[in-house]
């Protein structure tokens, strides 16, 4: 009789344990479904709410992306990017540096360090950074290669021929790994270059 009682108690406890673990799982999955449904309804309401914002006109300015002709070393506008006119000057330069890096310099790092006032003019300091692979130094080699690199960087940052850029910098200077650039074929990068 005692064995039957113990067996019955163990059986009842097992059934209770199984039913306790099954119930939370079912609740969890329904809770998960509810959370997922809420996420879906939130995202659809966000999308519906975002449409008027998208339709609100954001004033954009065009920045030119220049390619330098290997023979004449003259800049030619090869494309443009649009940036929000309300961005700070530094943020506009960062957008430009990202595009110039991707399109002209194999995604090498081009950092906007600062914009300072020098003799009453706004001068941007741009750092060309290598992570130990010296890939920038390859761009500084050779008279033609160095001239193309220099002119590409200078023209893209000064935007000299771009009349629709809005407020812009007056000059630009470049650093290589946060130090002055001392390579013969890119000597123009070692001094401040001003817009005409």
From TrEMBL:
Residues 1-20 form the signal peptide. Residues 21-34 have a biased composition (Low complexity). Keywords: Signal. Residues 36-55 have a biased composition (Basic and acidic residues). Residues 21-55 are annotated as: Disordered. It comes from the Bacteria. This is Lipoprotein.
């Amino acid at each position: 009789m005692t064995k039957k009682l113990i067996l019955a108690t163990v059986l009842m406890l097992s059934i209770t344990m199984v039913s306790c673990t099954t119930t939370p799982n079912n609740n969890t999955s329904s809770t998960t479904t509810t959370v997922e449904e809420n996420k879906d309804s939130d995202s659809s309401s966000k999308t519906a709410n975002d449409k008027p914002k998208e339709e609100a006109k954001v004033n954009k300015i065009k920045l030119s992306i220049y390619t330098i002709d290997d023979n004449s070393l003259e800049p030619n506008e090869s494309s443009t990017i649009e940036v929000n006119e309300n961005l700070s000057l530094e943020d506009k330069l960062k957008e430009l540096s990202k595009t110039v890096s991707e399109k002209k310099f194999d995604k090498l790092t081009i950092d906007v360090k600062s914009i300072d006032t020098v003799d009453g003019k706004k001068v941007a300091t741009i750092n060309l950074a290598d992570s130990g692979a010296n890939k920038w130094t390859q761009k500084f080699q050779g008279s033609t290669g160095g001239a193309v690199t220099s002119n590409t960087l200078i023209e893209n940052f000064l935007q000299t021929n771009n009349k629709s850029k809005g407020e812009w910098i007056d000059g630009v200077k470049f650093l290589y790994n946060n130090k002055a650039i001392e390579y013969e074929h890119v000597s123009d990068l070692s001094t401040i270059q001003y817009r005409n």
